[in-house]
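Residues determine shape. Take a concrete instance:
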Amino acid sequence: MKYLISRYNINIVKEICQRDNIPYKVMPSSNDKDYLFDMAISRARFRELLDDVMCEQQRKRTKTSTPYVTAKTIYNPEKFQKVLGSGNKFRITVHELNKL
């Protein structure tokens, strides 16, 4: 499927796709603000990817090397280890609470 990604998030999305082994192709969209990512993932997985983007944005805003993670990431041991890398500290993001 093709998903619209803001030009401001293109590098973060690429990093997450590489980390999670998601093959993708990037194409320009019909406007100058977005890009189309062609990825073989479900809409649910894409929403999870967007949550990961928000966590990475939060980490960059706070200028910390400690990753922010969602509760969903914590319950996925393989993904959780990828996010943690060689560190053992993490912060849980609460941006999901706004969806309730």
Notes: The first helix runs from residue 10 to 19. The beta strands are 2-6, 24-28, 34-39, 68-69, 91-92. The chain has a mean pLDDT of 86. The chain is about 40% helix and 20% strand.
